[in-house]
Amino acid sequence: MSDKRIASCILAAGKGTRLKTQRPKVLHEICGRPMLAYVLDACRAAGVSHNVVVVGYEKQQILDAFGDQPDVSFVEQAEQLGTGHAVMVCREALLDRFDQVAILCGDGPLIRARTIAALLGQHRESAAACTLATAELDDPTGYGRIIRDGDGSLLGIVEEKDCTLAQKAIREVNPSYYCFNTTDLFAALDKTDNNNAKGEYYLTDTLGVLVAAGRQVGAITAVPPEDILGINSRNDLAYVSAVLRDRTNGELMENGVTILDPSSTWIDPRAEIGQDTVIHPFSCIGAARIGRNCQIGPFAHLADGTTLADGTRTEARG
Description:
Blueprint: E1 6-11, E2 29-30, E3 33-34, H1 35-45, E4 50-55, H2 59-66, E5 72-76, H3 83-88, H4 91-94, E6 100-105, H5 113-125, E7 130-136, E8 145-148, E9 154-158, H6 165-168, E10 172-181, H7 182-189, H8 205-212, E11 217-221, H9 234-254, E12 258-259, E13 266-267, E14 272-273, E15 278-279, E16 284-285, E17 289-290, E18 295-296, E19 301-302, E20 307-308
């Protein structure tokens, strides 16, 4: 397989009705940053060269927030007619410009760069037209199930409402991480239809089209279960923020930073903090650069861009 530029296609046109909001869903913040920012950061860290963001509801708000980023372009989905339709409107932005495209959801801020990198790597090494990154859940309720044959080859995805009792017992699910060969993607989309209860075009239907055409569709179980938490309410926003806070604090502590009370300490995942620095309770740290052997807080607030030399001791505000 050639190794030309790889693009992402990030689906971000949704309204987020259950959030009861006038803002696009992907602009709601997790640990102080729009959730879309985390998806873009993960794509960049995984080696994706360009990111196409599909916008719709209150699109100008998203353009205002991310329009100055040179590796991001936008395509409007004027009518939300399903995930397949969201990708269809990106034909001009992707086809004949990129060999491969990773398709992801913009409301998944817990996504990790290493997961995207594993997906892209598996896709490059295989002869597949499409590769999925899947997850195994103790409770798969609500997710489409991954259907494999006796040899482990992927046959397709069955949405839960269409599952048999035996299929409902399958723990491997589809968290919507895809990598397609771009030409295969749009050829398959051309053969899908919207003859279903919702009258929508589903991206998952492309897998059956590809399999029926004799093309290989692969799947790698690479998504940690905690990374696919959905956000459909304000309670979900708070819960996912806490998960990201705990992940960030845990990684810092593993690398030699002391955090005296992780539950009251909020640190931007982009922050760089040196060994033997101590973070006191009720501190909030943005994308700062903090040296070694510092004492931060309690009740410290360090804004994005703050730089502290080794041995700095901050004073509490308030």
